[in-house]
Amino acid sequence: MSDNSYKELETIVYGMGGTFFGTSEVVEHLPEELKKYPFAITFGIRLSDAIIDEIGDKPTFTYFNHYRSVNALIDQISLKLVLSLQAHGKRAYSIAASQSIPSSPIPYSGVFPHKTGAVLAGLGWIGKNGLFIHKDYGPRVRLGTVLTDMVLPCENKILQNKCSSCNRCVKACPALALTGNLWEAGKERGHVVDARACSEYMNTNLKHIGRGSVCGICIKVCPRAGSGT
Ligand code: SF4
Ligand code: SF4
């Protein structure tokens, strides 16, 4: 790819309100039908601290609205990236900002986890809450991904997990869904988080606030949020 094409992708992300941007090669992590898009563009939006800080033992209506607004922005940025790549004669496939496919081989997941691309792009790591932890903004981010056959510069350098002895999210989770184990590449998600327990808790207890799809407690309590420490 030319420097200009790369710059154009970056400009789309930052110009539309993205906070960070990275690229990686993901072919070995893709299902067979998506392997024709071996590279991933990952970008993210930093969430509002003021809104996250209001979360107590349950999410707020404001947080649910924020979550949906950010998802809509992510989907718009993804669409713009896809159109730009297509205009360059490349194939591109966007992953929905929030998606859980019932037929997915891994329950409670979409066709490709955004956090896989984000970790491979060296933007952060997976925390004990099972979420992507950005190196500067902690878990207070949401991610977008566009897969493409445009050859992108990538190092696939994975950062070290910095959760260390912290267990705040594990102790705060009302569903007891977090095991306290550190994430390790290649291990199943259940090593860190019981996705069924998390989802069932939200569906049973938080349906009236966020339709059972948001909680936010393990984002709110993380000390790595916002400070970059
Ligand atoms: S989203 Fe809520 S229920 Fe799910 S792991 Fe985090 S704190 Fe627990
Ligand atoms: S709260 Fe602590 S253990 Fe949980 S993700 Fe954040 S740093 Fe890691």
Give keywords:
alpha+beta, binds iron/sulfur cluster, 8 helices, 33% helix, single chain, four-stranded antiparallel sheet, 6 strands, 229 residues
Strand fraction equals 5-15%
Structural class: alpha+beta
Bound molecules: iron/sulfur cluster
Strand order of the largest sheet: 1-2-6-3
> How many helices in DSSP terms?
8
Q: From the alpha-carbon coordinates, what is the Rg to the nearest angstrom?
A: 17 Å
Query: Which word captures the global form?
Result: globular
The helical percent reads 25-40%
- Total domains: 1
- How many β strands by DSSP? 6
Query: What does the average pLDDT come to?
Result: 91
Distance between the termini: 35 Å
Major β-sheet profile: 4 strands, antiparallel
> Which stretches of 5+ consecutive residues score pLDDT under 50?
none
Q: Give helix and strand order, one letter per element, not per position.
A: HEEHHEHEEEHHHH
Overview of this protein structure:
33% of the residues lie in helices and 14% in strands. The chain is an alpha+beta fold and 229 residues long. The protein has one domain. The mean pLDDT is 91. The strands form 2 sheets. A 4-stranded antiparallel β-sheet has the order 1-2-6-3, with helices on both faces. It has a two-stranded antiparallel sheet with strand order 4-5. Residues 129, 173-175, 177-178, 193, 198, 201, 215, 217-218 line the site of one iron/sulfur cluster. GO terms for molecular function: iron-sulfur cluster binding; metal ion binding. It holds the Pfam family Fer4_16. Residues 154-181 form the 4Fe-4S ferredoxin-type domain.
